[in-house]
UniProtKB/TrEMBL annotation:
Family matches, as InterPro entries: NAD(P)-bd_dom_sf (IPR036291), SDR_fam (IPR002347)
Organism: Thermobacillus xylanilyticus
Keyword Oxidoreductase tagged: yes
Entry-linked SUPFAM superfamilies: NAD(P)-binding Rossmann-fold domains
Gene (UniProt): txxe 3436-fabG
A UniProt-annotated Pfam family: adh_short_C2
Name this protein carries in UniProt: 3-oxoacyl-[acyl-carrier-protein] reductase FabG
Keywords: Oxidoreductase
Similarity comment: family membership: Belongs to the short-chain dehydrogenases/reductases (SDR) family.
Residues in the signal sequence: none
Length: 256
């Protein structure tokens, strides 16, 4: 399948690294003009900007002001908005802590970063997406449906993103705007830096993955998640809305 996004404009939050950066690249390679938010940027994002119609918007899109600025600058630069990828996310600072050790400020941080960033950017983008009959892909996680006692607040916040997405899919279907979530499992990003076996040989990583229940015996690569996001955002998925697409190598084994 050859996916063309020629003429489309996309906004990716958290687009400097990992899945976000891979998504910016995949969207641009498919023909879209892309705006990517991050507070600091990255060398890799700047390299993309020199080779493709990609712009970096240096804002904190978690905040209401930053969310509004991200959308406004995207439209000012490219004249429209067709695709929104809400990718901002962060895991619990106290990963592995007992539930009772998670104070209100930690819960608040997880909800701000993982849920309210989606609420605020989507709210700012909707007037433009309704005009273009656009598409929103929210990056959730398989932990939204598969409990992980090491990531309680993160998992709860991402579950709220999945629920919100389904609600918005129903609410805005009559205006032609589609909403879907992508739910990655363990993915080879900076989040796993220092947690993989050393040396990280193919066999060592395979053993590590299988021990954690990943049926295919490996982590996802960022570009594999990005390819799914691009498909869901494209007209090739024009009939698909309100779905939660798990991409985890077979880690989640329940029917849902």
């Amino acid at each position: 399948m050859n996916i063309s996004l020629e003429g489309k404009v996309a906004l990716v939050t958290g687009g400097a690294r990992g899945i976000g950066l891979a998504t910016v690249r995949a969207l641009a390679e498919s023909g879209a003009r892309v705006a990517a938010t991050s507070r600091d940027g990255s060398d890799a994002l700047h390299e993309l900007s020199s080779a493709w119609p990609v712009v970096h918007i240096p804002v904190n899109a978690v905040s209401e002001a930053g969310a509004g600025q991200a959308v406004a600058e995207t439209v000012a630069k490219f004249g429209r908005l067709d695709i929104l990828v809400n990718n901002i996310g962060a895991i619990d600072a106290k990963a592995g802590a007992d539930f009772t050790a998670l104070a209100d400020d930690e819960w608040g941080r997880m909800l701000e970063v993982n849920l309210m960033s989606v609420v605020r950017v989507t709210r700012a983008a909707l007037p433009h997406l309704c005009k273009s009959r656009g598409s929103v892909v929210n990056v959730s996680t398989m932990n939204a449906i598969m409990p992980n006692p090491n990531l309680i607040a993160y998992s709860a916040a991402k579950a709220a993103v999945t629920n919100l997405t389904k609600n918005l899919a129903l609410t805005y279907a009559s205006q032609g705007v589609r909403f879907n979530t992508v739910a990655p499992g363990p993915t080879r990003t900076d989040m796993w830096a220092g947690r993989l076996p050393e040396p990280a040989t193919e066999e060592a990583v395979r053993k590590f993955a299988l021990e954690r229940g990943i049926a295919l015996g490996r982590f996802a690569e960022p570009h594999e998640v990005a390819n799914l996001i691009v498909f869901l955002a494209s007209d090739s998925a024009a009939i698909i809305t309100g779905t939660d697409s798990i991409i985890d190598g077979g880690l989640v084994k329940t029917i849902h």
